[in-house]
Amino acid sequence: MRATTARERALAPDVARGLALLGIALANGVVHITGRTTGVLAKPVDGSAGDRLVDTLVGLLVDNRAFPMFTLLFAYGTVVILRRSAERGLTWPEARGLLLRRNAWLAVVGVAHLVLLFFGDILLSYGLLGLLLVAVVRWPDTRLRTLGWATLPLFVGLSALDGLGGATGVPAGLPGRETFVGDLLWRGVTLVSSVFSAPLVVGALLPPAVIGILLARRRVLEQPADHLPLLRRLVLVGFPVSVVGGVPAVLAATGAVELATGWDVVVAALHGLTGLAGAVAFTAAVAWWSTTVGPRGPGVVARAARAVGRRSLTCYLLQSVLFVPLLSAWALGLGAGAGTATVSLVAVGVYAVTVLVAVVLDRLDLPGPAERLLRRLTYGQPPVGAGAEVRP
């Protein structure tokens, strides 16, 4: 099967994916903070003025917004793969087998990532989600919408649990993670718990995935000029809903308000629910912007984001490769006792390194090494050019 070339790829999905990875870096950075008592959204309760500023921006624009956006794009890509498979003459059983292999191997990569590097891995869940999407991707719109609405409580519940994950009143960081062996053992425990929680996690990912499938069926990101009224509505409605809905949790996370018993669950759930609107709005904003790109192509920043988006699996894994030695207590330990401003600065630096790597590979017209490996495992052949990647 011939690889998709760079010229065949739409601009908006790649740029959106590349920008989402910055959000994921910012969201994941706080997970590495240890030795600080944390509250709602896992923010230290005694942060500095700089920490509070960062907490506000990240809480309103990134937390519970970047991952649903990435999930939406993952599902969108599934439809694109099926469409291109059909255009190249593959039958449904052949395309289904391709997707099953791709997602099974993605789950294996996720297991390796979780055990060796980062206990907050999302690739295992995405691989399992992809296997489920094979079963539902050809459902009619009405049935898909029903699935999305039915699983929305799972999405909101998981978002609330994630938002309250640090609100324990005890120092952040699991006991024993101060050593390499202890951290490795905890990652093993996380893997076991991930297996048991997988049905709930995959179910919670379905609402943004359903939205991604529905958008892909209409080629909204590939042909954004044909959908400008829809894109404008998604942006002009979604962003205000996302920001306003995130305010209560951010006020609690920064200590501006003290919540009565039980209200922390409510504000965390609201933060997650409205974050889905923010994820859709940001994706739509990128598509809307792409309609303004002239014949000379996108600017430097957009080209860099596109390069990252085309190598999103490599760049996601590279984030962990850089985060772990920098922030882990058993390595350089920059996360020990750190505030969110410091960790976010590290996250931006880590993202900048991934941009540099992606841009260099783009100049050489090469895929990322993780994309090359996953494509080889999926198709049984080496990729051709930067467009040959298989995206998470």
Automatic annotation (TrEMBL):
The keyword Transmembrane applies. Keywords: Membrane, Transmembrane, Transmembrane helix. The keyword DNA damage does not apply. InterPro entries: Bact_Transport_Assoc (IPR052529), DUF418 (IPR007349). Residues 215-380 form the DUF418 domain. The chain crosses the membrane at residues 66-83, 104-137, 191-214, 234-253, 265-289, 313-332, 338-361. This is DUF418 domain-containing protein.
